[in-house]
From TrEMBL:
The lineage of its organism: Bacteria, Bacillati, Actinomycetota, Actinomycetes, Pseudonocardiales. It comes from Prauserella isguenensis. The keyword Transport applies. This is Peptide/nickel transport system permease protein. The chain crosses the membrane at residues 58-83, 95-117, 154-176, 215-242, 262-287. One of its GO terms (cellular component) is plasma membrane. It holds the Pfam family BPD_transp_1. Its main location: membrane.
Amino acid sequence: MSQESIDQLSHQLGLDKGIVPRYFDWLGGFLTGDWGISIAQGSNMQPVFPKIMSAFEVTIQLILAAEIIALLLGVAVGVLAAVKQYTPIDYIATTMAFIFFSMPIFCVAIVLKMYGIDLNVMINDLGWDSWLGNPFLKTTSPESLSGDGFFDSFITYIGGLLLPTLSIMFISFAAYSRFQRSSMLETMNMDYVRTAQAKGISQGRVIMRHAFRNALIPVTTLFSVNFVTVVTGAIITERVFAWNGMGSVLVEAVNKNDPNTLMGWIVVIAIAVVVANLIADLVYGILDPRIRVG
């Protein structure tokens, strides 16, 4: 490439300006949806914004599915373990939590991928592939998560999300169940709970009406803190299952020295973390009206 071509490209990309003007140019473009172009695509350079939004749509599906399942199961198991303290149920829940804590996400993803292949073979042998699809469990990124009709679309969607979602869900489930158990035990020893028990209110009503709601506050805090961990887990899981999400975008941007994509990726993840914390703050006010702002 000639020096004239280099100078022309530098001017086109704004690289002939100072750092401060370039930053404000980038910020103004970012706020208006112009995030620059991805130089990782070579001669087929494409805008960064649609590239990241397409990948974020894939990743957020994994994160939401994993977090919803982890919250529902983790909170339920945590409450049950607290109510049945020092019983076999409590010991089993504690053992499961520590096992899930100790398993790296990439190991879980690889193991689930291997078992997913075996389960697909079993489904075919049983003849269930005619209505579950072939293969039912997607061990690599599917071209589409929709089918011809509602049932086909639902089955395809479940089969595509199941394995990567479970990979991310296990560690979050372990954290939520342990926090919920600890918080529930602490709440059950509060004076207002003991007063309700002394008045003869049934144990189930005491737990659900008086203890459960306040015991959710620490778990809500954990949700906002755990979001970054879940994003990291999603990035690793996407690489194992070859999903074209934010993980693939990050790796490609780093490997090919693509600063525009990398800056856009960082800002999108930062915004997602801020939104997760905002949701947690709003939930605080719902769980305990005393801490509402204004």
